[in-house]
Specification:
The chain is α/β, with parallel strands linked by helices. Helix content is 43%, strand content 9%.
Amino acid sequence: MVKVKEPSQISETEGTQLPIDVITAKAEDSHPTADSVSAISGADPFGKDVATDELFKHQQLSQLQEMLKVSISTKVGMLVTGPAGSGKTTSVRSVTDGLPAHKYSVIYLGQDRNGTNVLRRFLSALGLSAKRHHAHLSMQASQWLSDNLEAGGKEILLVIDEAHVLPDELLEDLRLMTNSDYDRKAPLTLILLGQPVLRLRLKAPDFDALSQRLRYRFRLEGLNQDETTQYINTRLAAAGLPTDLFSADALQYVFHVSEGLPRRINNVCSLSILRAKTAKRATVDLAFIKEMIELD
């Protein structure tokens, strides 16, 4: 059986926080008062350290998770698009982190415009020493995948983030790597994550074959206004802060300026709490948050 290098689930994704990563509110015996914002310490309530099982649950996340599970179980490619900060990576990890390690090897790649570098990183993740020339790299990867499939090795799940910046040549390489045994068996499951332009790019005739292999599609968008309020209040409660820290009109304004994108929500709320603490304010109202954003 072909062995795959297992560096504790290779992690080379966007280093930014993504959307749907919200802490589920935990029941508290006591109810914090608004004054507790002045005593906040420790981790940022809107920081990036959120366990997979504590993600904010909403309709889009549930739908995406179900589609991902089908894609992986059937070994059929998938395309996930959405604006920056919408939670693509976080959403995918919420599924892949739960895959059994004895059956799957999950490889994350991304944030690289150089196709040769991407292939070298992929080969390294497979435990191979990369050949020198780009053309040889693609052939080397394809041969290993074919041998692994034949030997009944682990299923390879390749997740490529920021795929909208990949060069054309690499997209063609990826198409070739997904093809084996006259299309009867897939040597790997490919999941591409990228901004909306990627969906348009794959409609070009040159990418028709690759597009056909990405059978499942999901367009991730921002939270709606009610979900944005729930998202914020859930994270506040999990951090032991009062859910009335932000006034109702301030919450509406956060939704307006963030367009419901979790990363933007996190940035606005983190800064608001920090400045409210510095100013020794008990609440964040509309005037305060507007002034803060205008000065930022």
